[in-house]
Amino acid sequence: MEFLLSHLRLALVLGSVAGAAVVGTAVVTLTGNSNNDGSSQATIAGEAEGTETALAARIHDAMAVLAEGFEPGEPAAFQDMLAEHPEARGEALFGQLLYMRRHFDRSAWFFGADALANPSSAAGLNNFASLLQEVYLDRPEGRSDDWPSLSVAVLRQARELDSQNPDILNNLGRALVGQWRVDPDAVDLDEAVELLQRARDLGGEELVVLGNLALALDAAGDAAGAAQILNEMHMALSSHPTFLSASGQVSNSTQQTYAGLPRTYCNVNFRCSEVCPPSIIGRINLISCEIDQTTAQQNCQAGQPYPERYDCVGELPEFGVQIPGIDSGFSISTPFGSIGANTDGDGNVRWRIEVGPNFGPVNPYMRTDGRYNPKGGWSRTQFRGGVKFNLVNNNTAGRITGRWGYQPAYVQVQAGGTGATNISAGAYGNATVIG
Predict the structure, then answer these.
(1) Helix/strand/coil percentages in the chain, nearest 5
(2) Fewer CB in 10 Å around end: N or C, the chain?
(3) Bigger pLDDT: 24 or 204?
(4) Average pLDDT over residues 408-414
(5) What are phi and psi of 30, to 5 degrees?
(6) For residues 144 and 269, which has the higher predicted lDDT (pLDDT)?
(7) Among candidates 226, 232, 231, which has minimal Cα distance to 213?
């Protein structure tokens, strides 16, 4: 654990200079740290004589349960380490880092420590309450049913400090719906709807807020209102995770209402005749494009996720050549390398250049792939290098094709531009990574 603590201490020092990142999710929105001048002071950390308030005690209780996910002794060691650099706001920094790694329970623990250490930070209160709720919703078993109401109480405190923050309003609205699912009599769902509508008006992350608003309206029994919100989300981006999540959580009544709504915005046009190039393969792809376009239009009308474009450009072959007229491009191969390119009807081009000598069964090479877009110009997308070992070099046909870079069966060692190296084996261009 000393190794881990030493690295975290370094992160604390760096964090005190750089600050924490601002992060968002599909259902809740975390806010970045902000310095507060102290004009609006929260009181969860205790009175002047050092006694804890009821809210602070509830946060401590929640953190005690969250701490069970750590190794023995880790929470105390972390607290000692954080106390060495109070100016760095390390609690928030580690909360953000663990959140990005999807360690939500540990992230919530650090955000709880931040909320207690910095009670005047609306961001810290928001982040703790939001993560606490998500941890509870993910696995209510073994968690306290007090957590949903605690999330609401802490978010109300955050709203007092920053009443016009759409992220806080969004999270408070969502937390009220979460509390309603545990204790319906304790929540006014009209308040949740109003908070989410206000978050939307203030420019909160559109689809995130709309997803929570649809769930709030559904919980309040407004199937028509919830269905209309789902329709807005579907029109904006039908494949967005928030739409997929919200549409799957609403009641059967809302789902039936949503299914019956008209969708005059559905006009799927893949421009198949334009994007599919004039070649034999391109004409075959044109038929597939038109079939997929019809299916996408039907899915759109049904309120289901649907694609909005079709990629009609063929992949550059790993084995073999492209023949102009049959393919939408060309290939030129020599014993010292090859060059190939193909295009679609919009003028987008994919190209590949590979160079390398041939030493019998051994073929070292360097390869670069790229694209050309009429609007964006030329770009290189990948750079690789490696060695191929021809496994059939004692065969006449294998030896001849191997000279031109088309080994019928081979083992390959390849390194990419990122430094990653892999070993693969293949036959006729179909490779399988083996290490």
Answers:
(1) 50, 15, 35
(2) C
(3) 204
(4) 85
(5) -85, 145
(6) 269
(7) 226
